[in-house]
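Re: [help] complex structure
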Amino acid sequence: MTIQDARGLAMTGADAAAADGFETALDEFQCYVGNPVGTIEGVLEARPDFAMGHLLRGYLYASSLEGPALAEAGKALDRLQALPVDAREAQHRQALDAVVSGAYERAALSWEALLVDHPRDIVALQIAHLFDFLRGDARNLRDRIARRLHAWTPADPGYHAVVGMHAFGLEEMGEYDRAEERGREAVALNRRDGWGYHAVAHVLEMRNQPEEGIRWLSSTSAHWAQDSFFDIHNWWHLALYHLELDQIDEVMRLYDGPIRGERSAVAIDLIDGAAMLWRLMLRGHDVGDRWQELADAWTAMIDDGVYAFNDVHALMAFVGVGDQARIDRQLASLRRSADGDGDISNRAMAREVGIPVAEALVAFGRGRYQDVIDRLQALRPIAHRFGGSHAQRDLLDLTLIEAARRAGARNLLAALASERNISRPRSPLAQRYTAAARA
Ligand SMILES: [Fe+2]
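Output below.
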């Protein structure tokens, strides 16, 4: 008898115990808790021919976009080449092959073709959602989920994750009211759904409601912070609200505590560290020796050349410590990524966005503010192409407006302050920029 997953999809090479373990790993992945890699590896030890197990393992590694993890994803792909698979699993294998090759657009097309035929394939849906995020594809963050909703009911296992992903996609498309409703629905369905809390956190960030944001994340942290591998990013969002309110002591407390206290060496966590210190630096705050620790952690990935969004955040730390050798090495790595052609996604990301952003950050560090303005002005319409969220890429807007202030570019400062005050009507920082433009 063919074993099926909890949504009715056949799984080659599984037995009942493997199917159970697979659901446990999926549940962890969907909530961003526990250790889904460890769980699926335990399943594969007992059942080494379980194709969806290898696929999930490969995707989990690949989604970190770090060099050594991508090599592990490549090993999962090698293992799959020798295993029997059905037509759906063969489509997954093709998508994993594209991801391991760095061809994320090609992978996204494979997942979409698969999802048209198998809209209840939650593995394809979640991994495609993550790569839509990593590619800055806001429309698909929302609509790749919307195209699947016809096949789901609230009784289906993992439905909360579908709702939570829809919430985040709605938020990135600017539909804040519907996004908030869906995010709250996701966490009501499963109170451990870390992505659902995060979607609502983004809504409150984009609506410039920092007090509400603090209430939201503080009152629910017992659910999203415990045993989570996504908690640092939600702590970062909490710190971002405090920053907006000029509560710098609280920002530092969160930075030294849950954000960097455990010295995570994972790229997504290092991004949060760099993104917060850079914002503090822009506001003129002394961050002490915090850049040093962060720069040292980033150095392990300096030559990876996997993802320009990572490289740019690493560069912030190297600019933060003023280490010219590491700045040059990171720039060289980005330029290597941008070389050549073919469908490796990071080539375009590095060439179109990564390098100009990196050059702007280096220029900022050297006090060449007009250079910063020239580079970042040209980038504004296309910055989303190297991925991340609107809230993360706000760092570019903040760098631009501060460069305008420091360059004495009064008319530009007035224009950018006007823009910022309209999108963030309760922002003390935006009001300070308006005052500076008038001074
Ligand atoms: Fe976020």
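The chain has three domains: 1-134, 136-239, 260-407.
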